[in-house]
Amino acid sequence: MDADEFRRSGGEMVDFIADYLQNIRQRRPLPAVSPGYLKKLISEEAPSDGESWESVKDDIEKVIMPGVSSAHTFREPLLASSPACTELEMIALDWLGKMLRLPQDFLFSGERQGGSIILGGASEAILISLISARKAAINKLRCLDPQLTNGQALDKLVAYTSDQTHCCMEKSCLIGLVSLTILPSDTTGALSWETLEAAICRDLARGLVPVFFCATIGTTSTCAFDNLAELGPVCNKYGVWMHVDAAYAGSACICPEFRYLLDGVEHCTSISVSPHKWLLVNYDCTALWTLSHPQHWQVNMGRRFRSLKLWFVLRMYGVKGLQERIRQDVHLAKQFAQMVKADSRFELIGDVTLGLVCFRLKHCNCVNEELHEKLKSDRRIHLIPSSFKGKFFLRFVICPASTQLQDVSFAWSVINEITDGITRHCAT
Ligand code: PLP
């Protein structure tokens, strides 16, 4: 949808909501549909080709409105008052789960107790998973020893993650009062199963109870990937809840050529992916799938109708359209990496698997920090730096849907221009 189409379609939606408000008395406060009504009206899988906005818009009145109690600014906790809100979320997340080829057990349509929810962010997904794992572990400990208080049981629990995991894991453990062991990653930024198993065994020997492990597919700093197929069996062996944080990189796994990154996901208890990061869905939209229904899926009682925008995007791009976008972004990232490689002043940090390119000048950290500072004050491009194993570097990432080669070339020309000034002054 280009800017003109968006202006026109947005205007139509404002008219739709205004008409709804004007004619509110002709509608019933409670929808007259039976549970499961939406499943009969929507296909079981996302369309492979994109559809027009007109056909999506037609379905809003035909398919969605019979199951809602207000216009499009929902805060509906109740299945009775807004079944469309709950049912569309279940359907859209099953679509996405199938696109990611998640095991059936994670889906509502699967035979086990799996399910999913849309949350506001990856941090919330980790927090909900951790709290669920904590609750199950405390119940189990108190079953074995009824004298144990909740607090005494809680004191025994330990969670694990790697030094490359997003800091929201640390925050979740602070909120959840579970102690966290941060383990060193290997030279690629991944956590080895041997390191995890050794830490678990050490804690078991001290009488502690390993409860939760957060793996990452696409770390924030360098887009490294934990090996789920190796880490998963360790967690299963010791009864540890394994959560996979695939906030950014998970979206790429809708392409068959990147799906290998999720190999081993069948060993995990929960996984989250943020379509707002790389699947063209507006902020906020993080999908959390879990094998074991949490007692509480979210902190708030009310909820927004976030599945609408996910459903719109999946229908309007289709699976093929979204795969195409991911592939174009990865291709652009690889083109940028080629530019970096072709300039002997620079080096790449790590592999370029998806849309992130990490690079630095072949100089000390302070020269790279100077490059970053100068780019920041120049203000034409914005690069967020990071460091890995003591090396400071810059991160170039392709994200907005409209990015083209000319934008990448422009960014590279700015980096070159600023670098010329720095290296000249370094040489003198
Ligand atoms: N996990 C990863 C891998 C991330 O890259 C980020 C944010 O950049 C987060 C978690 C936190 O995401 P949110 O802001 O949606 O909570």
UniProtKB/TrEMBL annotation:
CDD domains: DOPA_deC_like. Keywords: Decarboxylase, Lyase, Pyridoxal phosphate. The keyword Transcription regulation does not apply. SUPFAM superfamilies: PLP-dependent transferases (SSF53383). The keyword Lyase applies. InterPro entries: Aromatic_deC, PyrdxlP-dep_de-COase, PyrdxlP-dep_Trfase, PyrdxlP-dep_Trfase_major, PyrdxlP-dep_Trfase_small. Its cofactor is pyridoxal 5'-phosphate. Belongs to the group II decarboxylase family. This is Aromatic-L-amino-acid decarboxylase-like. It comes from Aplysia californica (California sea hare).
